[in-house]
Amino acid sequence: QHHPRLQQSLDKRITLLPEMLRSVGYDTYGCGTGPRTRPSYGYSRGFDRYYYEICDKKVGIATAESVFSWAKEQDRKSGYKKGQFFYLHLLEAHWPYYPPRDFEWIYSRVTQKEVYRDVKKYRNIKGALDFDKEQGTFFKDLYRAELDYCMYQIDQFLAYLKDREAYDDSLLVIMGDHGSNFNEHNPIDVFDLYQESVNVGMAIKFPKSLNRQGVDHGLIEANIDIAPTILDMLNLQSGSPVNGKSLLSNSDELTGRKDVVNSEDLYIDRYSVSIRNKRNTFIYRTRFDGTSF
Fold first, then answer.
1. Coil, strand, or helix at residue 228?
2. For residues 191 and 194, what is the distance between their CA atoms, to the nearest angstrom?
3. Phi and psi (nearest 5°) for 31?
């Protein structure tokens, strides 16, 4: 609905989740580190404080460590109060790959060359993205190193929440927005709707008071399920239509729904949509001139 890739802002007629939470007394904090999360696209709406800075892993700007440090600083300034909502965006595991050296050395198997780290630079120099096996392995190694660094910083933040005795009462959602291609169907820097791009992990830790154990009900969840889950947990009603389903629904309600997820990709001159379940994926792509590809 908001088409951020086309440099359009979020629709002001839609009430956003932080706006809903702030209206009932929550302090809301947001942090964006990617070009698609800039305030001019409307992503700062509803936040009491929104910190935006483009991540530059090469020089250590807006990395996962600095994002979590910012969040802890806001928590400290609030007096460690309850009733806070944080949206924290991390750009780790997104190319170009510049994991910290302490993590990179675990995986790196080839000569360290600056050009190998940035896929776009490699494409401009080589004129194509035809990697040999060694080069492809190096990109995967750097990707794994960035994931390790990201998870380490997440673990450190969870430890912080436990130390200040806020972990048990918190709802935590950790998820990726998309995966990475490693020449399975497309070159590394090309986003598409194949499984490697859209089948990403999501972990949810509910507050201890809900007495919810981790379960796998066999369904595919989607990022649009997060907002209705939060609203359901707080017993709040949205002033705008909310897509998705609450993950607090009982097993019978969830399994009674179709196990199908839609994904969309809108980019300059083309539109793609996929319909998938755990067995099959159907992808339709079209250009705005009416031709399919």
1. helix
2. 9
3. -140, 120
